[in-house]
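pasting input
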Amino acid sequence: MNARTESALAFSPRRVAAMMLRYWYLLRSSWPRLIELIYWPTVQMITWGFIQYYVMQNAGFFARAGGTLIGAVLLWDILFRGQLGFSVSFLEEMWARNIGNLMMSPLRPFEFITALMVMSIVRLSIGVIPVTLLALIFFGFNLYGLGLALAAFFFNLMLTSWAVGIFVSGLVLRNGLGAENLAWSIMFVFMPLTCVYYPVTTLPVWLQPAAWLLPPTYVFEGMREVLIRHTFRPDLMFDALALNVVFFAAGVFGFLKLLQSARRNGSLMQTGE
Amino acid sequence: MPATPAIKVERLVKIYRKEPAVDDISFSITPGSITGLLGGNGAGKTTTIAMIMGLLVPTSGRVTVLGADMPQQRYRVLHRMNFESPYVEMPMRLTIRQNLTVFGMLYGVRGLRDRIEQLGQALDLTELLDRPTGKLSAGQKTRVSLAKSLINFPDLLLLDEPTASLDPDTADWVRARLERYCRDRHATVLLASHNMAEVERLCQRVIIMKRGRIEDDDTPARLLARYGRRTLEEVFLDVARRRDEAREAAQ
């Protein structure tokens, strides 16, 4: 390893803590930001909870498959909010025109990414934990009853959300705030293909291989296996993990390439539109 | 043996879409000196500073800062540098103390609490330390940016329009603090400015840029003598308006 790589890879927990502190100060100082974290997951869970309640009263299969819709909503929110938590923390730097300060400081890209990953968990916890408790109170759906399976689902979904978040941050860094909308919408491209609310077999046969290329597909299939057949499928989780390693590496590689390109074309100096 | 230059720029070029923003410039800056980078809009000052900071990769040429090649070896020296520019801001919702804490941690400053108090006193910010940065006046914000740029006792300070948007009194006050810091710490400063009085007061040397090239490079006194002018502003206008005849006549 040459001196340049070694220096760029040097990792300081203190610098990571500095960035986490920065985002924590920001969250603490702004109640609209805190409310925003909880508001949409709550609305979504309640809406889908009532839909599921209605369907359960009218269809035998769904009555047996209790919780699949709410479960899907909550797991989807982990995926979506995880990526959003990462991307919004990054966007805060762009909105504040603070990227130049950070890029000129000794903060390494991997430290920045680590801080954003940890903050995405913090933001997700603030938003989703109260919602899971509401799901328990209103609809008797106990997400934590999934036990070990939940940990495997969570880990895989977070890895995917970080991979996408890292890549989108690179795009925003390279192309400016004009690319901001991607941060809010990119995950929805995955929604139909990852089969959040229906089994993969629902898709046309020719589209199913594409669905199996996405790690969250395995998680949502795994969730239905647990809730409908009461079986935990570790094989699905290992397949998801293997794909996630590829996704994560591709996300980091893309981010570093886009950062390099931003240094070449001067985007780091013009962090507006 | 001469001291290693704080900044060494060799045949630096930056081209955007076939247009040269910086066109084959070379200079080196002695440690402990204050150098002014003058030039009109689009002269290439900010692009030059960005390449010195490692924010921008040159098309060709070489930049060495405190002995490290930029941007390849930037992490070797970034903790010894700092900068202030109107193109970046401090996060508005954070208080001054919170902002300085975050940047102090990023720069690995020891005794950070004391350092923040010290900067608060030196830059007359003590009463404001717990106020959100977004609620400060333009002059107060400039002092906060200056506090951030001094948080790590930098050996090299890059300042892009450090007193823009300040009233004359505050600007003069800021200059005095900068001067004292450089004298006390033997720090090197590269200062891009449109304020000729500021450059005349602070700088031992002035580099004048125009259309990406260095048009002139000397001490303020020698520049005044060479162009036969009384102020740097007049020299600047001569260069900007290509009054080469004035220079020739004076010579």
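fyi The radius of gyration of chain A is 20 Å.
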